[in-house]
Automatic annotation (TrEMBL):
Coiled coil: none annotated. Keywords: Nucleotidyltransferase, Transferase. GO terms for molecular function: glucose-1-phosphate cytidylyltransferase activity. It comes from Candidatus Phycosocius bacilliformis. InterPro entries: G1P_cyt_trans (IPR046981), G1P_cyt_trans-like (IPR013446), NTP_transferase_dom (IPR005835), Nucleotide-diphossugar_trans (IPR029044). The keyword Iron-sulfur does not apply. Its EC number is 2.7.7.33. It is an enzyme of class 2 (transferase). It holds the Pfam family NTP_transferase. The gene is rfbF. It comes from the Bacteria. The keyword Transmembrane helix does not apply. This is Glucose-1-phosphate cytidylyltransferase. Residues 2-205 form the Nucleotidyl transferase domain.
Length: 258
């Protein structure tokens, strides 16, 4: 099983962090959020990644090209121009880094990544800027049971504000950031069959969340895997601070690995 990660957007709403680096490289607890997402998938047995690059994608290439160097003890022999790695703590990951263009939209990036799936018929898809404690393995199992082309994880986001529970003008209780009662939304964690390629246009301007998903729904080829747990995108500086605070307090729900 492979996971495609869309990591090419500009991240304009997080300009404080993304003026010099792509949003997936913004750090939580000293690690890029992209690393956290990949650790989530690896915890559920998905270790083969296809990362779609765009804005400043070379920084993501450099990060993984030097991953062992930054995560191990080393001895450098300048005289012999050699380097010995000690205590290699690299992940057991295989990563394809694909330049999909700085202006390409999500559907265009997905289309360009499909040839790298090889013979795999089923794969995961997500974005490089959100974390969750979703049971990815369970969503994959669910996808295999229903026989449709696509599965989307449906979530109910928390409200930005606490809610007052009122009896007239008397406050009976205060609910701290309850789940939004507005309904279920696209949580950004997909399991897909390779046949969804027929729903993607040949244009880089194709937006996965618009016509392709709408047509899949119209054709009754899209099922929802419901997730009631933690889910948090990193769209703004406030979102990043929230995630950083959870990680610093050792209360990060998405950290399910040892």
């Amino acid at each position: 099983m492979k996971a495609i990660i869309l990591a090419g957007g500009l991240g304009t709403r997080l300009a404080e962090e993304t003026s010099l680096r792509p949003k997936p490289m913004v750090e939580i607890g000293g690690r890029p959020i992209l690393w956290h997402i990949m650790k989530m998938y690896a915890h559920h047995g998905v270790n083969d990644f296809i990362i779609c690059l765009g804005y400043r994608g070379y920084l993501i290439k450099e990060y993984f090209a030097n991953y062992s160097l930054h995560n191990s003890d080393i001895t450098i022999d300048l005289r012999n121009r050699s380097m010995q790695i000690h205590r290699d703590s690299s992940e057991d990951w295989r990563i394809s880094l694909i330049d999909t263009g700085p202006e390409t939209m999500t559907g265009g990036r997905l289309r360009q990544a499909l040839p790298y799936l090889g013979k795999d018929e089923t794969f995961c898809l997500t974005y490089g800027d959100g974390v969750s404690d979703v049971d990815i393995a369970a969503s994959i199992d669910f996808h295999h049971t229903h026989g449709k082309l696509a599965t989307v994880t449906a979530i109910r986001p928390s409200s930005r504000f606490g809610q007052l529970k009122l009896d007239g003008d008397v406050v009976n209780a205060f609910a701290e950031k309850p789940a939004d009662e507005g309904g279920w939304i696209n949580g950004g964690f997909f399991v897909l069959n390779k046949s969804i390629a027929t729903y993607l246009s040949e244009k880089d301007s194709c937006v996965w969340e618009q016509e392709p998903l709408e047509r899949l729904a119209q054709d009754r080829q899209l099922k929802s895997y419901f997730h009631d747990g933690f889910w948090q995108p990193m769209d703004t500086l406030r979102d990043r601070q929230l995630l950083e605070g959870l990680w610093a307090a050792d209360k990060a729900p998405w950290k399910q690995w040892d």
